[in-house]
From TrEMBL:
Coiled coil: none annotated. It is a multi-pass membrane protein. GO terms for cellular component: plasma membrane. The lineage of its organism: Bacteria, Bacillati, Bacillota, Bacilli, Bacillales. The chain crosses the membrane at residues 7-31, 43-64, 85-108, 120-142, 154-176, 182-203, 224-241, 247-264, 309-333, 339-362, 374-395, 401-418, 438-457, 463-481. It comes from the Bacteria. It comes from Paenibacillus typhae. InterPro entries: Poly_Biosynth_Transport, Polysacc_synth. This is Membrane protein involved in the export of O-antigen and teichoic acid. Keywords: Cell membrane, Membrane, Transmembrane, Transmembrane helix. It is found in: Cell membrane. Pfam families: Polysacc_synt (PF01943).
């Protein structure tokens, strides 16, 4: 299983890397083809759709957890029953999502009064296509969750890798054909259907999975709903953080400022995707550990190990963005997007602590102890919305970013109090281990930042050379001052295996 996770992690990092490179290459073409206004509308639709997705009521994580539980207990009948129940639930939710979307479309004129008639027409068209995509996704997503519960990560990550490559290529193609944003959302719909069908056939014919439609188990449903309700609350809070700002900007400032803010949040998404790869694999593993009686000391070993690795990764990415982010944006999109760097920094830097502790959230789901965290997150999200509505009137899109950052800081503080005093985890030990990673990062970043003030970078080639130089310095610094023996073994172990194979 370790090999499975390692290979899946490698494929995931490759997918994220290719996704970033392809996105960086295609975004200027997409922005220039659509224009700031239509690109802002496309971003707005994605933000609205993210709220429609919340209708899954948190059952997506429940599919993984309860399948993992039944697998661990060798309860085949229970697994068949619960998957039948989930399929019925998700099909009903899909229909509800489509109905809610249609109702919403009829109210766009009053909601987005700052948009003109042409912009509203485009918004309605691409939103309806995106809504159909979401409605179909609900019943289809159950199969990817089941595959995750079986820890078939390699297959899932290969499928995602194909999506990463095919999706932007097809989007650029439809733009070239003149189909604009309508073509882009249509591509997403087509790919989603194809992947959903592939997952179904893998579950049905490769894994021999049978879904049983028996009498509705009310007791089991109550247990599932109790677990899922707080996943839902966390999901709502997450969407308020990541997708409320474009809606508020659209209501108060119009379509064009959304485009600048969208670039900042896009850069933040790149960093999140790179940094949270490992934690995405651990819900099945942690669930099985807890079912088998793992204590807090054993869980803390996993939390610290993954937290330090994530710190090494996010330290490199964020410090690199601080050093080279502004010049990259200027070369990439031009002077008109210069301010996206400042907005991105305000959002990204406070998020480092949450990224490092992301496995804590996964652990709480596995323990079915995620209620308090969900309540904290939701309360802070409401506070963030209030601050955004106040700050946007004074500082514009900068106020949105400041409100987001403030909420993140308060959220991390409250969560760590909960981990320390309620769950009795040794949080001081955790952060002591993390700080050992970050001290050399800060010192190296400070020295390199000072030296870069004497340098002028004006092309991708120059930027690439300096990034490579910084990468070498970062790797050498982390190896010498931050990484422990186990972390070095992760790097050298595969190299030694390759060397031994080449000698035989």
């Amino acid at each position: 299983m370790k090999t499975n996770i390692k290979l899946a992690a490698i494929i995931t990092y490759l997918s994220v890397f290719l996704g970033v490179i392809i996105s960086l290459g295609s975004t200027p073409y997409i922005v220039s083809t659509l224009g700031k206004s239509e690109y802002g509308l496309y971003s707005l639709v994605n933000s609205i759709i993210a709220y429609i997705v919340l209708l899954d009521l948190g059952f997506g994580s429940a599919v993984i957890r309860f399948n993992s539980k039944f697998i661990s207990e060798n309860d085949t009948n229970g697994q068949r029953n619960i998957n039948g129940m989930f399929l019925v639930l998700f099909s009903g939710i899909g229909l509800l999502a489509l109905l809610a979307s249609l109702i919403l479309v009829f109210n766009f004129n009053s909601i987005f009064s700052s948009l003109n008639e042409s912009e509203l027409s485009i918004l309605k068209t691409i939103f309806i296509i995106a809504a159909v995509n979401v409605a179909i996704s609900f019943p289809m997503n159950i199969y990817s969750s089941i595959i995750t519960a079986y820890e078939r990560f390699v297959y899932l990550k290969i499928i995602n890798l194909l999506r990463v490559v095919i999706s932007p290529a097809m989007m650029v193609l439809v733009l070239f054909m003149g189909l604009r944003s309508v073509g882009m959302v249509s591509v997403a719909l087509g790919l989603n259907i194809a992947i959903g069908l592939a997952n179904y056939f893998v579950c049905r014919y490769k894994m021999k999975l049978i879904v049983k439609f028996s009498t509705f188990d009310t007791k089991l449903f109550k247990e599932v709903f109790s677990y899922s309700s707080y996943i839902l609350l966390s999901s709502i809070a997450f969407q308020l953080y990541t997708n409320a700002d474009p809606l508020i900007i659209g209501m108060f400032l119009g379509a064009t400022p959304i485009a600048i803010y969208a670039i900042s949040t896009q850069l933040n998404t790149y960093i999140m995707n790179f940094s949270n790869v490992l934690s995405s694999f651990y819900l099945p593993k942690l669930t099985k550990m807890i079912v088998k009686g793992a204590d807090q000391a054993r869980l803390m070993v996993e939390l610290v190990k993954i937290g330090r690795i994530q710190a090494l990764i996010v330290g490199y990415i964020v410090s690199g963005f601080v050093l080279f982010g502004q010049v990259f944006i200027l070369i990439w999109l031009g002077e008109g997007y210069r301010y996206a760097y400042t907005i991105a920094l305000i959002i990204i830097i406070p998020q480092i602590t949450s990224i490092v502790q992301s496995l804590f959230a996964t652990m709480l789901e596995a323990m079915n102890r995620h209620k308090v965290k969900a309540l904290i997150y939701f309360s802070i999200a409401i506070l963030k919305i209030i601050l955004t509505l106040l700050f946007i009137r004074v500082w514009g899109i900068t106020g949105c970013a400041i409100a987001t950052a403030a909420g993140m800081i308060v959220n991390v503080i409250l969560n760590n109090i909960y981990y320390k005093y309620k769950l009795k985890f040794d949080i001081f030990y955790f952060w002591k281990e993390i700080i050992k990673v970050f001290i050399p990062v800060v010192l190296l970043g400070g020295v390199c930042g000072y030296l870069l003030t004497f340098v002028s970078i004006s092309s991708y080639l120059q930027l690439g050379l300096y990034v490579i130089l910084y990468s070498v310095l970062y790797a050498a610094t982390m190896w010498t001052f931050s990484m422990n023996a186990d972390e070095k073994q992760i790097v050298t172990g595969p190299m030694r295996k390759v060397a031994l194979r080449s000698q035989t």
